[in-house]
Each structure stands twice: as structure tokens, then as C-alpha cells.
Design goal:
By secondary structure, this protein is an alpha/beta fold. It is built from 17 helices and ten strands. A hairpin with a 7-residue loop joins β3 and β4.
């Protein structure tokens, strides 16, 4: 069984002979891993293709999530709303909030992913990648988007968003409503570009910063709407903000796989979310990026032992951090094979 089949089998509640290994990888890690300028990674489609394609050969036992991810750092979704993107040679681009705060976003409408910002470019690259993969008997099997609160934090700035959630919820909610609809149409456009997929990845750390009350009113309904729009696919939710106070609430949302912070003990997450598949949770920076291979194996084996390996996809407690060496990924795989 290849790594993706292992991943999707466990994600759907099945079992495999060994614990699957899956990692979220994108532009914070990949250019540095292969020793190239970040701008070259984004600018040259063949460089992007080769970088992602070579992972399949170098790490044949890892499922890459979402895999062949067309992303410009965090910029794709904000760019469609006109946010300024600042490019860097050695890291993904940063985003400037739109001037004017909530006033500037009043009355805005969902964007068109076929016309606005970097979305059409991303869709075209997806089409080309799928064509090349299918020629090899492979495929893009998952698409991804940032969540509504994450997107709002770039358009408004994190301080403006948090103040709006607390003090002006009646003005913030319509913004989140539009962003939620945008994310749904963006994911559907990606699916249309590549054809049939098996899963979606939604990334949104901001809900972990909220109180239960604010989460219930201004996060959960929007997350649920996105997940419900893709019923039948495997839905992976990434939130590596430590949020033990929200675990039972997250358990009520309609997604299958939870990628969470290493700072939240995997035993506590399993107890609060018994029906979900857990994806984690080796520390991505202190251990995966900066630790030795034996430290990676120790952490990984502890995750397997604490869960009995059931309902577990072994991974970092977040995405792969910049500077993560190949031998530490090898160690993660070795722990799963042991």
C-alpha cells in the first residue's frame, strides 16, 4: 500500500499494517530544503514541479499533504481582495493589511477565483501539474485553503480582527460570512481544475486564540459551513495553536483528521476527540528542525505508544518548519516502520 493509500485509509477510519506518515509541506521549507531562492521556487514552474516531484522519490514512505500545493505563501487568498504582497528571497511573501479596517471591508463580495488575484495563476499551475502527474499514473489528490479567520487576520491585521470579534461582532460576522463563501468557491475551483480529489485541507490557527463563547458564535459556524460543503471527502483541519479549551467543541465539527500543536498532549486530544483521526504531533521546530534523529524517533514512538497507533497519522505538530533536515524525516519514517 503506497503512502497516500495508507493515509486515506486511516483518515477514513480504516486500519493499515503500520502507522502512516504524512507531512504538510509548502514554501517555508521547500526552497531552503533544495537550496534555491524562494522567488525562483514561485517564478519558475519547472523548478516548482521538480522540487515537489523529487519528494516522491527521496521520501517514498511519506504522504505529502496536500501534495503539489500551489501556494504563494499566505498570499493567494488575500491577493484576491487586493492586499499588498511583499516578496522575499529567503522566505514566503508577507501580507500588508488593507487600510481602513472593518470600514474598508463593509459590503465586500466573494471573489471570483477565475479572475482575481493569484487564484487564476494557481489554477493554471494545478491544471499543468495534474496533466504531468497523470502521465506518470499519479494525481493531485487533495486541495487546500486558508480558513476564514486566518484570511480575516491578513486583511485586517490580527489586532484589528481580535478587537472586532470582541467589540464589534455584528460588523465582523458579515466579513467572515463573505470570506467563508470565498473559501468554498476557491476550493471548488481547485477541484474543478484538477478533477476528482479525495480530500481538502483547511488551515486556520486563529480559532485557537478565541474564548469558547467567541468560538461558538464567530468561528464554529463558518468552519462547519466549509466542512459541510465537502461532505464525502476527507477533511483535514490544521490548527497548531494550543487550544485544549476548545477540543470538545472542535470534536463537534464535521471533519475527519486533526493536525494540532505538539504543545497539546496527544492523550488529551484523543480523550476529547475519540472519533477523529489525529495527525501529529512531533514538535516541528524544536525536534523536527533542530533536534537529532534519535530525538525525532523518541517523540514519534511516544505518539504511537500513547495512542496504540490507532486512529493516528504520524506527523509534525504543524507544518514542516524551515531548516528541517532530510535525516529527521527519515527518522520519523523509521519510527513508524519499527
Amino acid at each position: 500500500m503506497d503512502p497516500w493509500k495508507q493515509f486515506i485509509t486511516v483518515a477514513r477510519g480504516g486500519t493499515t499494517e503500520r502507522t502512516p506518515v504524512a507531512l504538510i509541506v509548502d514554501s517555508p521549507w521547500l526552497p531552503g530544503y533544495v537550496g534555491i531562492d524562494t522567488l525562483d521556487y514561485f517564478l519558475h514552474p519547472d523548478v516548482w514541479w521538480r522540487t515537489n516531484r523529487d519528494l516522491l522519490t527521496r521520501f517514498p514512505d511519506v504522504a505529502w499533504v496536500p501534495g503539489f500545493w500551489v501556494e504563494y505563501g499566505m498570499a493567494v487568498e488575500p491577493s484576491a481582495f487586493g492586499a499588498r504582497v511583499i516578496w522575499h528571497h529567503d522566505s514566503p511573501p508577507s501580507i500588508e493589511p488593507l487600510p481602513g479596517g472593518l470600514d474598508a471591508l463593509a459590503g465586500m463580495r466573494p471573489v471570483d477565483p477565475y479572475e482575481h488575484g493569484f487564484m487564476p495563476l494557481a489554477l493554471q499551475l494545478y491544471r499543468d501539474a495534474q496533466r504531468r502527474l497523470q502521465a506518470e499514473g499519479r494525481a493531485v489528490r487533495m486541495v487546500a485553503a486558508r480558513g476564514p479567520l486566518a484570511l480575516a487576520s491578513w486583511l485586517l491585521g490580527i489586532t484589528e480582527l481580535m478587537v472586532g470579534l470582541k467589540r464589534q461582532p455584528e460588523r465582523t460576522a458579515p466579513v467572515l460570512d463573505v470570506l467563508t463563501e470565498t473559501i468554498i468557491v476557491w476550493l471548488r475551483a481547485q477541484i474543478e481544475a484538477v478533477g476528482e480529489v479525495e480530500g481538502i485541507l483547511l488551515l486556520d490557527d486563529i480559532p485557537g486564540l478565541l474564548s469558547p463563547k467567541v468560538f461558538d458564535s464567530l468561528a464554529a459556524p463558518y468552519l462547519a459551513r466549509i466542512f459541510e460543503a465537502f461532505d464525502g471527502l476527507v477533511r483535514v483541519y490544521h490548527n497548531d495553536t494550543p487550544c485544549p479549551h476548545l477540543l470538545t467543541r472542535l470534536a463537534a465539527l464535521p471533519f475527519e483528521v486533526f493536525n494540532f500543536s505538539h504543545e497539546t498532549d496527544i492523550v488529551a486530544v484523543r480523550a476529547a476527540m475519540p472519533a477523529h483521526v489525529l495527525m501529529g504531533n512531533v514538535p516541528p521546530l524544536a525536534v523536527m528542525a533542530r533536534g537529532a534523529p534519535d530525538q525525532v524517533q523518541t517523540w514519534a514512538r511516544a505518539c504511537i505508544e500513547k495512542t496504540g497507533g490507532r486512529g493516528l497519522i504520524l506527523s509534525a505538530g504543524g507544518g514542516v518548519s524551515p531548516g528541517t533536515p532530510a535525516e529527521n524525516i527519515d527518522a520519523l519514517v523509521a519510527a513508524a516502520l519499527a
